[in-house]
Amino acid sequence: MKTAMRAASHALALGVLLVSGAVWTISQQHPLYANPGKLLRLPAAVVDATQPTEQAFRIGEVLNQYTHDRALAFRIADALVDQAEKEHIDPALLVGVLLTEDATLDPHARSSVGARGLMQVMPLHSGKWGCGSSDLFNIESNICHGVQILKEAMRSAPNTRVALLRYNGCVRGRNTPNCHLYDDKVLRHAGRAAAEMRLVKTQKSE
Fold it and tell me: Residues with Cβ < 8 Å from 58, sequence gap 6 or more?
């Protein structure tokens, strides 16, 4: 009887040792899995990363054709959609302006006359409109400034074409050769972008 009890005691001790070792190993290899409760205390953005809106996703896929940096394309798309919604401007039109100004999607682009960034904003506009930053090479700040300039041009112009020419500074057509063609380029890019956006497959469209 004593021999049987001793054997059972040894078996129980061995079992406890094996279980403890397994738990320790798991906790070293997968610390989060060892204590799942920690996941519940993580910020929501970590547990469930924010997904782009359907419109931003469509624009991101369109812009991705112009750069090898997919993250950049979607960051630009998010900023465009954000400003389009705030100012009630067709996002496809903003895509048209952006691609006309810089089809390489270079946030640090600088023109020969000093215009900066994606929307080619002149430094004299820096810091206006509460865009969060006066850095015109910052993507969100640059797009915010550019959209505000376009909005002001649209408010005072008789139509979209004239507003686009004013955005480009082509008031009398003497500042840039063939600047009178600017509105055609923007609207062509905008129309192509709108058509391509409709073809992008999303979870809602499938």
Answer: 197, 198, 200, 202
Average model confidence (pLDDT) for the chain? 79
**Tokens coding 6:** 């001793």
For residue 116, what are the β-bridge partners?
A: 110, 121
Place of tokens 């809106």: 53
Tens of pLDDT along 119-175?
A: 999 999 998 889 988 999 999 999 999 999 999 999 999 999 999 999 998 876 555
In tens, the pLDDT along 45-55 reads 333 335 669 99
Q: Check if the beta carbon of residue 107 is closer than 8 Å to that of residue 117.
A: yes
DSSP state of 51: P
What's the one-letter identity of residue 164? Answer: L
Residue 131 has what DSSP assignment?
-
| Residue reference for tokens 């994606």 | 118
Cβ–Cβ < 8 Å for 80, 59: yes
Q: To which residue do tokens 């953005």 refer? A: 45
Q: Which bin fits 114, alpha (ψ -120 to 50), beta or left (φ > 0)? A: left
Closest CA relative to residue 168, chosen from 179, 157, 159: 179
Q: Is the pLDDT of residue 80 over 50?
A: yes
